[in-house]
């Protein structure tokens, strides 16, 4: 990792442990964690950063396993300066660091329906990148545009056609950091929207381990709803069902467990390493394949190295 980094107004921390910044509370350090002061600071940093240094933007880590050896290169995490929410008629523009729940509540107060975001524990950057969704609505359904800073420091506006929204995926360019996104939301009555969000929160608590250390659904549904509406892209078979059929509900490895309340929630039940979690996930994939012939695909993003870098040899 490069010794000299561009001068910035934000915060640069070398060898910063990322575990505490993720929902699963596992993972090693980033070579460098950069928290830009604002979009100009971010753009100047990226344009001055040698092109060979990898860049990984993270949100609030609710869909991530950071491996135990940490992440080489620069991890960028947006904070204050990127969490504003502006509402203009039926359009909501939110900073990429704004929490989905906060955006949903603000929109509802203004009579705009982004209620599906209320129970997703991520940030707007993560919601767009992952095409997050639930209860039949997806980020791609309401998305209009996103402001990004590309890896070379140039700024761009991306439209839905640039991002190719599909089930839990988009084609955001590698190393691009989203700084804000604009959504066009349907109208609704504020009181009804608030009541719907409360009902959804209650439903979550009844059906999912919302108080445990998880990263949400571990595997994509082999078939589940999708925002594309294409006939070849419906997903009705649930991952939890095939995991149950393979007898893996409650399976453990070290401190990792396939949650007994919802078997598609890989959980840090205490003291798990990233390797425990990832290895248990792989064991589940093998068991499901052996039992049903279905290859489960990870929905949780796994980033970084399994092992810490070897210390540089002393001369
Ligand atoms: C209890 C629980 C319930 C969940 N329920 C749901 C659900 O119902 N539906 C659903 O879709 N997901 C769900 N999730 C998963 C997760 O919350 C979503 O995927 C969320 O959108 C991730 O956002 P994040 O900010 O945490 O992103 P992270 O986990 O930090 O990152 C996820 C991806 O987004 C990218 N990213 C984040 N911010 C930026 C940015 N500013 N610019 C560029 N790329 C960025 C990262 O590079 C990474 O590729 C759940 C998770 C938990 C823990």
UniProtKB/TrEMBL annotation:
E.C. number(s) listed in UniProt: 1.3.1.98
Needed co-factor(s): FAD
UniProt region (Disordered), positions on chain: 203-232
Catalytic residues identified in the record: 168, 217 (proton donor), 299
Reaction equations catalysed: UDP-N-acetyl-alpha-D-muramate + NADP(+) = UDP-N-acetyl-3-O-(1-carboxyvinyl)-alpha-D-glucosamine + NADPH + H(+)
Compositional bias segments (type: Basic and acidic residues): 203-214
GO annotation terms (biological process): cell division; cell wall organization; peptidoglycan biosynthetic process; regulation of cell shape
Keywords: Cell cycle, Cell division, Cell shape, Cell wall biogenesis/degradation, Cytoplasm, FAD, Flavoprotein, NADP, Oxidoreductase, Peptidoglycan synthesis
Gene Ontology cellular-component annotations: cytosol
InterPro entries for the chain: FAD-bd_PCMH (IPR016166), FAD-bd_PCMH-like_sf (IPR036318), FAD-bd_PCMH_sub1 (IPR016167), FAD-bd_PCMH_sub2 (IPR016169), MurB (IPR003170), MurB_C (IPR011601), MurB_C_sf (IPR036635), Oxid_FAD_bind_N (IPR006094)
First-listed, main subcellular location of the protein, grouped into a coarse class: cytoplasm
GO MF terms, alphabetically ordered: FAD binding; UDP-N-acetylmuramate dehydrogenase activity
Span of domain FAD-binding PCMH-type: 25-188
Domain of life according to the entry: Bacteria
Subcellular localization(s) per the UniProt record: Cytoplasm
UniProt pathway annotation: Cell wall biogenesis; peptidoglycan biosynthesis
Keyword NADP: yes
Compositionally biased region (Polar residues): 215-228
Transmembrane segments: none
Entry similarity comment: Belongs to the MurB family.
UniProt function note: Cell wall formation.
Protein name listed in UniProt: UDP-N-acetylenolpyruvoylglucosamine reductase
Species annotation: Cognatiyoonia sediminum
Gene symbol of the encoding locus: murB
């Amino acid at each position: 990792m490069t010794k000299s980094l561009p001068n910035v107004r934000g915060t640069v921390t070398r060898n910063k442990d990322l575990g505490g910044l993720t929902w699963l509370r596992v993972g090693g350090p980033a070579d460098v964690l950069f928290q830009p002061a604002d979009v100009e600071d971010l753009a100047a940093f990226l344009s001055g950063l040698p092109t060979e240094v990898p860049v990984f933007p993270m949100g609030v880590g609710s869909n991530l396993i950071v491996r135990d050896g940490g992440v080489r290169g620069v991890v960028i995490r947006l904070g204050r300066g990127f969490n504003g929410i502006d509402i203009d008629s039926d359009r909501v523009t939110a900073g990429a660091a704004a929490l989905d729940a906060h955006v949903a509540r603000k929109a509802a107060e203004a009579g705009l329906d982004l209620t599906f975001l209320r129970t997703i524990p991520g940030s707007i950057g993560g919601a767009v990148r992952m095409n997050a969704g639930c209860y039949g609505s997806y980020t791609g359904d309401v998305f209009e545009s996103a402001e990004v800073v590309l890896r070379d420091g140039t700024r761009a506006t991306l439209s839905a056609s640039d991002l190719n929204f599909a089930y839990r995926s988009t084609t955001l360019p590698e190393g691009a950091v989203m700084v804000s996104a604009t959504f066009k939301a349907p109208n609704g009555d504020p009181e009804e929207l608030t009541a719907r969000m409360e009902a959804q929160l209650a439903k979550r608590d009844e059906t999912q381990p919302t108080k445990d250390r998880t990263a949400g659904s571990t595997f994509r549904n082999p078939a589940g709803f999708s925002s594309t509406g294409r006939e070849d892209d419906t997903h009705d078979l649930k991952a939890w069902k095939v995991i149950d059929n393979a007898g893996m509900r409650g399976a453990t490895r070290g401190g990792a467990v396939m949650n007994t309340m919802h078997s598609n929630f890989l959980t840090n039940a205490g003291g798990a390493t990233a390797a425990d979690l990832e290895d248990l996930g792989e064991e589940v994939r093998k068991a499901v394949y052996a039992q049903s012939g279905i290859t489960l695909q990870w929905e949780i993003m796994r980033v970084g190295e399994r092992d810490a870098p070897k210390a540089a040899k002393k001369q």
